[in-house]
Amino acid sequence: MSLRVGLIGYGTAGAVFHAPLIATTPGMTLQSVVTSREVPSGVQRLDRPDQLWEDHDLVVVATPNRTHVPLATEALHAGLPVVVDKPFAPSVAEARALTALAAERDLALTVFQNRRWDGDFLTVKELIRTGPLGRVVRFESHFDRWRPVPKDTWKEQPGRGEAGGVLFDLGSHVIDQALQLFGPVRSVHSEVNRHRDGVQVDDDFFLALTHESGFVSHLGSSTLAAHPAPRFRVLGTTTAYTKYGLDVQESQLKSGLRPGDPGFGEEPESSWGLLGDASVPTKHGCYQYFYNSMVSVLRDGAPVPVSPESAIAALEIIEQATATSEPR
């Protein structure tokens, strides 16, 4: 029997990412969406989250950040496993409490850190693992955008409980990737800024993470990057890898392409990165891995694809960064 999934929220996260990925996962059915918007044919539109607490096998929370913890808490109390979109929670304390509740009730809880399955990130992992770079001496990761005028969205709302700003939004991705590559962090240097006129949340950051190994990751994001920095720049004792541009899966999903369609997750040769002077094929991105894994979690008791503890580690860095470098 197909697993019945209820999705809360149908903005960009719900409509562009979760809904199509769930709908194309063998063994899963997108049964219901809680939203005021029009939903795909064959999917039930509901008005309230509590209408999901019966006749569903999994709840996905893809709503504004301030609602992640309350909605996930309700779902867990109703006895349902939960996927929470990133960022996991507005604070480490709330994330830990939610994780403890899931453990107490013996329910699966995971966080949608989809960019662990970006093609360029998978390429970087492979290059570091297989050794053509030699000993890696510097890792730089940027997730830049050109948005000089603030948008009137919840992501631009001030207040710690809102978890708005680019550090929570894109920092959640680049921090998580650095932790996956180089392990836990022992210290954080941060520069968190507000540059755009009238903005009330951070719109630019730079982080230098010193990992427990002594390795340092340089991470950044800006909404004023008319000329974006390389997405990845990895320097080694033998050569370097440089990659521009973002993973193709988001734009493909927006255009209607789906996992299983020809070319999904495949980057054109013109966008491949350089290893020294040689072009290196970008590995295929595979966001579908997340929900394929969730089928195994719910049916076979497999480990969740993203542990809550790993998401808490990223939140700890965000909290340290904001505590030591208030936006200016």
UniProtKB/TrEMBL annotation:
Name of a matching Pfam family: GFO_IDH_MocA_C3
SUPFAM superfamilies found in the cross-reference section: Glyceraldehyde-3-phosphate dehydrogenase-like, C-terminal domain, NAD(P)-binding Rossmann-fold domains
Top-level taxon: Bacteria
Keyword Electron transport attached: no
Keywords for this protein: Oxidoreductase
Protein's UniProt keywords contain Oxidoreductase: yes
Record-stated family: Belongs to the Gfo/Idh/MocA family.
GFO/IDH/MocA-like oxidoreductase domain: residues covered: 121-239
Protein name: Dehydrogenase
Chain ranges of the Gfo/Idh/MocA-like oxidoreductase N-terminal domain: 3-111
